[in-house]
Amino acid sequence: MKRNAIIITGSAGFIGFNVSLKLLKEGHAVVGIDNLNSYYHPAIKEARSGILRKYPNFIERRLDISNLEDLKKVFCEFRSPVLCHLAAQAGVRYSLTNPYAYEQSNVAAFLNILEMVRHNDIPRLVYASSSSVYGGNTKVPFSESDRVDNPISLYAATKKANELMAHCYSHLYGFQTIGHRFFTVYGPWGRPDMAMWLFVEAIKSGKKIKVFNHGNMKRDFTFIDDIVQGVCSSMFAENLDKSEIFNLGNNRSEKLLDMIEIIEKELGIKAEKEMLPMQPGDVPESFADIDKARLKLKFEPKTPIQEGIPSFISWYDKHSDLTNLVAKSR
Hints:
By secondary structure, the chain is α/β, with parallel strands linked by helices. It has helices at 14-25, 42-52, 68-77, 94-97, 99-119, 154-173, 195-204, 224-236, 256-267, 291-297, 305-318, 320-329; strands at residues 3-4, 6-9, 30-34, 58-62, 78-79, 83-85, 124-130, 176-182, 185-186, 209-211, 218-219, 222-223, 243-248, 254-255, 273-275.
């Protein structure tokens, strides 16, 4: 007989870990699926998984979701009222040099997930998309109703493909699909390949930080706790349409140089900046219109960067064994 549990893919990842942790604290049984790959230092993923394993209602399954036979075994064992799919190959720049990783993890694996939902009668799939789907869009803030047919990175194209595949499966097979376009998520237990971690690490080490587009960048920096609230709300919200897309952002477009200034102030160190041109696949600005998420998910981000950045730096300092290990491995 199948056991009841919420299945979360990417449970050792940044967002997946935090979503899993919130659900476990609320008393839900969680099956976490992750292959703990080496895109960034696996020690971070091991540490996150170690925290989850302290909860008796957490069940871990280490596997690659692009392996359909291994994935089927999990769904033979557990019945899930909602599948939260957060596993993916992340990163815009990495997609320029490792394109096949994105085809396998973001397209083939997503098809496996859709097939598991279809054949196991799971009523709702919540999945990660990305603000990168807006591509070369010059209208701000970005709205879910905007056209997103001009991606400028392979990563963005795979995420748009996920949205189209999900819509198709909802239409054909009747289950709900809820996609989230995440905007520059940061915070404790974050990813070491992202700008905030890289900047803190470099400034503390007395190294130059790379500032692209000569600093003329703006981002909708969104604190992890706010993202988790939006994702968890979508897992249980009522009166959602058959196929939905939501922006999850902070609804503020912050200057990159302002973000750096807050880091400098918090560390008490002036950053040495290397001003560089825009990188291929990058965009000058992101800004989320969150009216739809406010209406349907009661989503209301609460954390400005003036609070979120110090929170990340505090975590970074408290986990110096881990952050030093990452720094030494670069």
